[in-house]
Amino acid sequence: MTDADVIVVGAGPAGLMLAAELRLAGVRPLVLERRPRLGEVPKANGIGGQILELLRYRGLLERLEAAAHGRVHPAPRIPFGEVHLDFAPLGESPLRGLTLPQPRLERLLAERAVELGAEIRRGHELVGVGQDEDGVTADVHGPDGTYRVTARYLVGCDGGRSRVRELTGIPFPGTTYPEVNRLGQVTVPDSVTSLPDGDLDVPGVGRVRTGRFTRTDRGVFGFGLLTPEVWLVSTTEDELSEPDDDAPMALAELQESIRRVLGVSFPLGEPIRLSRYHFQARQAERYRDGRILLAGDAAHLFPATGVGLNAGMLDAVNLAWKLAARVQGWAPDGLLETYHEERHLAGARTLLHTQAQVALRRGHDPAAEALRKVFLELVADEQPLRRMGALIAGTDIRYPMPHPNGHALTGTFAPDLVLRTEEGTTSVAELLRGARPVLLDLADRPDVRDTARGWRDRVDVRTAATDHRPADALLIRPDAHIAWAATADEPAGPALRDALAEWFGAPLAAPLASRLS
């Protein structure tokens, strides 16, 4: 017996998402968080990318929207390095976002995890960890002293300075950039005049163009309008010392930074959100060491904003059902190894475009300016622009499948098809709400259903019709990625059996499988 099935170290978005997903899969998580209470520093102001669709599939998105500043919205124009990507020519932006400060997001994710039965211990700091072939032990310092807990597995979701990663000895190679970024959302002061073209006339500064970066010898100043009443102001300065990103930032610190960069004082209204951060480009060499795993910022740090939450929460969704399979005893050989294979690939893709942003942002010479001009010429065309949007959102990820059957959908995120069944109309999103695997028969094929008979205790088999079906059948994993797809009239037999066994273990004995049918 153990105290928990899985110990999750860190109650940030990745750790809380992991705890909720583990509970959906029937596993007992214990979350340990060193901070005594929910954080108040808004490290992120919202979430975007593929995770929004996954949250909708879980039935969580409406709850988050109710607590956010509006609904999920397309992002028609975003900063990329020191240039902007303008998606307006596409008609529909491939990027969507939800404005939700991170403290509020963490509060909602914690509520969800606790509702599902997860235990969260705040003010309990991991101080030691050990493992053997049977499980893990964690030494924890809490309000009443030091104690030990045991589990089958432990996952470090404890941020860029991960104690789990340090204690396990997992290398975290990469680069720390010598720059400090300060960001503020502030109200527009009365002394500022709005010009007809949307720019501003600022006393002592003159005309300030919205949506542009201003580079000086001392750093970069960024400015934009979120609404007619709210500014988004940022600075980037090279500093040798590493700031404490968890320490609150005062408005005076942002004003002093602007003064250093521009050489003049810049009037600011009342602060709505203030944050400070520095950029690193790092990725753990391995996301798993025996029974200890890493997810979120403990596994990767990206040198750009707006992508960390997407990557970290998707790590959690990918990992949870695979850990549950191991705990519950039906995992096929090698299943847990695919967590590193798939999410390390996804992390490397995110590092690729965020490090490209560093190159576009930090260059000061004519060659760097030429690079920015060439990049903007390339993304003026539709296909490169769509490709960049998918790369940033993480929607271009196609996991490598061990037994590919050549279908274009295998490895991709399942589309939300509208489905007509004998019970009524439903959708792929509705079927995945409980985080169970689904075999979706879209062509009423008895051979598909018969092949899956031995896995009915683990895989929900559903028959449905849909307009313009993309395949005769889809085998969808709990993380919404497609493990197998059947083209029209393709025999299901061996290929489907291989995919079911590869992802969901050995079939039940024939008599038991018949009783479950």
How would you describe this protein?
The protein has 517 residues and is an alpha+beta fold. The strands form seven sheets. Strands 1, 2, 8, 9, 10, 11, 20 and 21 form an eight-stranded mixed β-sheet that branches. A hairpin with a 3-residue loop joins strand 14 (200-202) and strand 15 (206-208). Helix 1 (13-24) runs parallel beside helix 4 (102-115) and helix 2 packs across helix 7. The longest helix has 26 residues, at 337-362.
Structural features:
517 residues; alpha+beta; eight-stranded mixed sheet; six-stranded antiparallel sheet; 31% helix; 29% strand
- Percent of residues in helices comes to 25-40%
Shape annotation: globular
* Residues in β-strands, percent: 25-35%
Distance between the termini: 33 Å
**Number of DSSP strand runs:** 28
Which whole number gives the mean pLDDT?
91
Secondary structural class: alpha+beta
If you compute it from the alpha carbons, what radius of gyration comes out, rounded to the nearest whole angstrom? Answer: 25 Å
DSSP summary: helix tally? 14
Summarize the structure.
This protein has 517 residues and is an alpha+beta fold. Strands 1, 2, 8, 9, 10, 11, 20 and 21 form an eight-stranded mixed beta sheet that branches. A six-stranded antiparallel beta sheet has the order 16-17-18-12-19-22, sandwiched between helices. Strands 26-25-27-28 form a four-stranded mixed beta sheet, with helices on one face.
